[in-house]
């Protein structure tokens, strides 16, 4: 179907070119009702059960702005150090598309509610400043299912089915200015930015920020210029970048693809490209052309929004602490070293650890699970760590069982494996997989007796004054118990049996 | 020089998703040119420092509380659909990805 | 009791409250009248016989039960087909909506129903309210009951024809550039465009969102005022709705006293291009108002001459976007869905087949005016002219209470006369458009017949924002003075329609 373009290695690409990036992040707000009508915004409801004349774009219907969405937009703007417009309007962005009920998107054009902001991200201990161009309010579209094609994709489909439940859900689009960082850091900085945004939006309580459910979506603009040059190249806009790791992967891919084209003497087309999570490539979507004439004009059905300064200041007073401040505070509270904290931030698990600690788990244990077992599982599954199906609540439950001696680390890992594979709750998985530690002394004693009988040479060594040799017996008992025994308990019983 | 050419009219028709016939294109170009001649009179007004009016009245900050109100039933929502399938609106195949 | 159709809404209400007639009888009489005359007039696109009689029976039952009912409960009304009514076909005069039954009531319809007003059916109009004659309706032209060879005005020609043909005592219109007032002038009836935002647009199929205004049509000023009071008032479903009490229109219509009222005659709305008979009746009416105690002065509104070009940029721009939703995906007509054509092609084929020539013209014009490279020169500049027109009004209202002009430059023209000359058609609305651009209240009242053709002439009153009552004050003063001269309202001079069975 798609011809995969040749790519350069990232090292070769960066040896010759400097990447220039811009990121557009769409955030679905967690309001109860839609941007312009009272329909619910629940994810996963049966198709077309959350619609009304307004969000279906029926003739005659009119929009009315959701006050909480405006408040959330202001919150986000303030948290990104933006100026908040004293007066701004909505505008219609006119283009035809079947999942857009009115064939225009009610958005903001040259008068965004928030503009001229900045934020910072940390990558490998270095802080990078990211300038924010604007944050504006708009509405989401419906969702199409493509029928009849081989893969459920748009190509080869015979027709499509549209569900308008999502149409009209409030979106905030956050647009960065051009991001220029040391070339080797570009993709990682982009990922760190999106990850930081996720943490920030969660802290603001304005969005669920579930990339796997599309409540945070990222478009990446990438262009290359010859190393050290100031001559800007043609940029592409990569869409469908729907996980933190794919932000980094997609940008890296696009750098290597564009570099290969340029090195071969080709030209970069100004186009929309689509990221494919499964194959790890971007493919050509649609060339930008004069058909992209959106004929913006002020939305006559909505009146201007002029947030009173008192309201803005009230909102500012409710903002949670800034991410860098919070990071330092958490590091102190958790007693992590700089290096440990850097790993936590780079791994995108700071908020997860925070939530886990809040459930009573020791910071070190929370870090051990999130950065160890679950980061590894996420990597294997090709998912973001927060999309694994294991949350802070599960970690806390498992950790409690470990501390109570009902599970050991090995069994805990098996529980997590079961959770990732959607086998049920923690209790159900322990039950189904038979993972409980054997705490019955007589069963353990039997296993110890078997080990002693089977390893007379080891017993001989122990008896001849080499107690360290007993370790081999413990290993044999654990093997016999298929790991489902508390090693400390085994050692205690064994020592008693052997009289040492 | 005409204020609008046949080619421009054809381009506008594509933008507006109207499959005009050749005959219509022939008629519309001169008609639109005539109308554009009329409306272009707005340029006679010196209005450089005049603020534009997008709304008839100067109302601001009309917002509603974030509460849910009853939706249409799916049956009502789909009642006018030219085609429906699996409680969704059935539409012809879509060739281009979203803008 | 066929004379029930000759009664005003106020008279019908009295008959019902005194028990001399039921709403069912009254409704049936009007349905019969529609049956007998609409073959010739073609005011209605859909007559909801069953629904109307059920509504009427409900009002009768409530009256019998002693419920407190509004002044217009049980009175029949004709509804312009641009307002949604739950489950009743709504086409906006377009093929693209043929057979569409909206799943919801517009706010206007909700309020009509709540007031117990009986909706007889949906009236003809120019497609999507684009036109001044109803000749742009996809379902045929409505004929003027004063002369069946002439147009009844537009876009709300169906509503004005229905009341002037005694098919209904009341009707609802919508006014974007004159679509209530121009048909009222052409049919010798009363038509009021309330202050923009004074009546809700929720459920009004949008032509130009910043201009559209629903309003009342009737044969008398008081009937119009009573209807105005029913439909007006703040609606949280329309963001542009004004959150203030409804102006005291009924009181003004009852009072009709213009003593001391300062009236400004707009210098620019007259002279060349105005029919002599129209100007003659207009000036007589101005003199009459002077005699009744008003102070009349001449006022200049220098930017009104640019209202028409500005309007024909703003309206098509908004309309091109408002009409984008008619795309064959969720409702309405679908053409060319053969399994091969893609969505974009089906949209384009449907819009080609479903829209008439005037609608296509305006969509193209609006698409052009909004496109990059033209926006500032066209749409942007038109919005600045809009500001200047509003300032002309504001300056005038510093010296006068209301402004007046003829409602239209001419009387009703012959069917077919201006079909091929869009610009001549557009010029019908010269006097009415400025009030839509500025959002103020305005109305047309009948002031006699033009000498040269014996057709009705309308007198146009423009009042400041939320001073709709002043329009009614002037209208009622004229109506009662002319009643003394004519022995009734102007409509009583209308020729009898031939009745068919």
From TrEMBL, chain A:
Pfam families: GatB_N, GatB_Yqey. Residues 351-498 form the Asn/Gln amidotransferase domain. Keywords: ATP-binding, Ligase, Nucleotide-binding, Protein biosynthesis. Its EC number is 6.3.5.-. It catalyses: L-glutamyl-tRNA(Gln) + L-glutamine + ATP + H2O = L-glutaminyl-tRNA(Gln) + L-glutamate + ADP + phosphate + H(+); L-aspartyl-tRNA(Asn) + L-glutamine + ATP + H2O = L-asparaginyl-tRNA(Asn) + L-glutamate + ADP + phosphate + 2 H(+). InterPro entries: Asn/Gln-tRNA_amidoTrfase_suB/E, Asn/Gln-tRNA_Trfase_suB/E_cat, Asn/Gln_amidotransferase, Asn/Gln_tRNA_amidoTrase-B-like, GatB, GatB_Yqey_C_2, Gln_synth/guanido_kin_cat_dom. It comes from the Bacteria. Heterotrimer of A, B and C subunits. Allows the formation of correctly charged Asn-tRNA(Asn) or Gln-tRNA(Gln) through the transamidation of misacylated Asp-tRNA(Asn) or Glu-tRNA(Gln) in organisms which lack either or both of asparaginyl-tRNA or glutaminyl-tRNA synthetases. The reaction takes place in the presence of glutamine and ATP through an activated phospho-Asp-tRNA(Asn) or phospho-Glu-tRNA(Gln). Belongs to the GatB/GatE family. GatB subfamily. This is Aspartyl/glutamyl-tRNA(Asn/Gln) amidotransferase subunit B.
Automatic annotation (TrEMBL), chain B:
The keyword Manganese does not apply. The keyword Protein transport does not apply. Keywords: ATP-binding, Ligase, Nucleotide-binding, Protein biosynthesis. It holds the Pfam family GatC. It catalyses: L-glutamyl-tRNA(Gln) + L-glutamine + ATP + H2O = L-glutaminyl-tRNA(Gln) + L-glutamate + ADP + phosphate + H(+); L-aspartyl-tRNA(Asn) + L-glutamine + ATP + H2O = L-asparaginyl-tRNA(Asn) + L-glutamate + ADP + phosphate + 2 H(+). It comes from the Bacteria. InterPro entries: Asp/Glu-ADT_sf_sub_c, GatC. It is an enzyme of class 6 (ligase). Its EC number is 6.3.5.-. HAMAP family: GatC. Heterotrimer of A, B and C subunits. Belongs to the GatC family. Allows the formation of correctly charged Asn-tRNA(Asn) or Gln-tRNA(Gln) through the transamidation of misacylated Asp-tRNA(Asn) or Glu-tRNA(Gln) in organisms which lack either or both of asparaginyl-tRNA or glutaminyl-tRNA synthetases. The reaction takes place in the presence of glutamine and ATP through an activated phospho-Asp-tRNA(Asn) or phospho-Glu-tRNA(Gln). This is Aspartyl/glutamyl-tRNA(Asn/Gln) amidotransferase subunit C. The gene is gatC.
From TrEMBL, chain C:
The gene is gatA_1. It comes from the Bacteria. It comes from Kribbella koreensis. Gene3D superfamilies: Amidase signature (AS) domain (3.90.1300.10). It is an enzyme of class 6 (ligase). It catalyses: L-glutamyl-tRNA(Gln) + L-glutamine + ATP + H2O = L-glutaminyl-tRNA(Gln) + L-glutamate + ADP + phosphate + H(+). It holds the Pfam family Amidase. Keywords: ATP-binding, Ligase, Nucleotide-binding, Protein biosynthesis. Residues 25-471 form the Amidase domain. This is Glutamyl-tRNA(Gln) amidotransferase subunit A. Heterotrimer of A, B and C subunits. SUPFAM superfamilies: Amidase signature (AS) enzymes. The active site is at residues 80, 155, 179. The keyword Lyase does not apply. Allows the formation of correctly charged Gln-tRNA(Gln) through the transamidation of misacylated Glu-tRNA(Gln) in organisms which lack glutaminyl-tRNA synthetase. The reaction takes place in the presence of glutamine and ATP through an activated gamma-phospho-Glu-tRNA(Gln). HAMAP family: GatA. Its EC number is 6.3.5.7. Belongs to the amidase family. GatA subfamily.
